[in-house]
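Limitations

Structures in this collection are predictions, not experimental determinations, and the ligand pose is part of the prediction. Treat each record accordingly. The example that follows, with fe (ii) ion as the small molecule, is included so readers can see exactly what is and is not provided: the inputs are given verbatim, and the output is the predicted complex.
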Amino acid sequence: MSSINYSEKIPNNVNLAEDRTLQRALEGWQPNFIHWWDDVGPERSTNHEVYLRTAVSVDPSGWAQFGHVKMRDYRWGIFLNPGDAERQIHFGDHKGEKAWQDVPGEHRANLRRIIVTQGDTEPASVEQQRHLGLTAPSMYDLRNLFQINVEEGRHLWAMVYLLHKHFGRDGREEAEALLQRQSGDVDNPRILGAFNEKTPDWLAFFMFTYFTDRDGKFQLSALAESAFDPLARTTKFMLTEEAHHMFVRACCRARRR
Ligand SMILES: [Fe+2]
Ligand SMILES: [Fe+2]
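Predicted complex:
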């Protein structure tokens, strides 16, 4: 595994520097992502520095850095958990075979659909929550909200990486479309109904972290078993961040007792 070069635009542990085509595709997508963040990300947050954790590696003993950062300057990186060359598929028709490092043609359409659907939820929740910063009950809640928002942004990056790396031109088109659909939009809504609902107040947000994030955890846990190994490895690492999203639900409930 490569060490991470912090001077790179996109922090990663996937040897991005050695794949110029992929790097260029991602660097092309990045400005559109920032544009999306400015447009429909957390409202009136642009000029504020926020104390945030940033994933910088997958080392369980120290995977994150903490510091003040303006959210649009957050370093959305790409991290896969370490691979196991011997990993096998544990269920289904392919049980016992080696996990796939590339997408088999026969499962391409389904895998793309799964990755796009997962990817679509990540920016959708940021859009749903964009007004909440204006009415945060406390600084503590505000920081938790923004932490979740930037990490959902990173989860979008995680899925876009897979689309760019493994799905060629239609993967790139899907990556663009992930920035074009919008939560609640009449003409071009997000894929799943729950992500088109309004999150008008903090009670709705806590319910979101209580139920939807929990559902998301099981969804990610299922994807972490995927026969497509890069998907399994990236979702395993996403679960590390997701633990905090569920903690927000639990701790908010505890504090209100
Ligand atoms: Fe997420
Ligand atoms: Fe989450």
